[in-house]
Amino acid sequence: MCVCKPDTFKAFQFKSTAELTSDGAVFEMLVKTIEEEKIPVPPPKHAVTIKVEEVRALGES
User: Fold this and answer.
1) Mean pLDDT, to the nearest integer, of 26-52?
2) Which residue ranges make up each domain of the chain?
3) Residue 44 CB contacts under 8 Å (≥ 6 apart), including other chains
4) Residues 55 and 13 sit within 8 Å (Cβ to Cβ)
5) In the beta sheet, which residues pair with residue 54?
């Protein structure tokens, strides 16, 4: 995954693993947040948990 901050032209690469879940605490928190905030999206089928293992600044030497 890569994230860029356009106003400063800085970018970062994240080395990570992702896990999909359709039940449990993370999924329930996602459903609750969507309902409480009245976010107009279809009901979620999964939640994604990302474990960041390494971060690299891009464009720097």
Assistant:
1) 96
2) 2-58
3) 27, 30, 31, 34
4) yes
5) 15
46: tokens are 């999964």
For the cut 70, the answer to whether the pLDDT of residue 61 exceeds it is no
Lookup: tokens for 1: 């995954």
DSSP the chain: -EEEETTTTEEEEEEEEEEEESSSHHHHHHHHHHHHTT--SPPPS-EEEEEEEEEEEES--
- In percent, how much of the chain has pLDDT > 90? 77
Bridge partners (DSSP) listed for residue 48 = 20
pLDDT for the residue 59: 77
Q: What is the DSSP string of 33-49?
A: HHHHTT--SPPPS-EEE
* Spatial contact of 23 and 45, defined as CB atoms under 8 Å apart: no
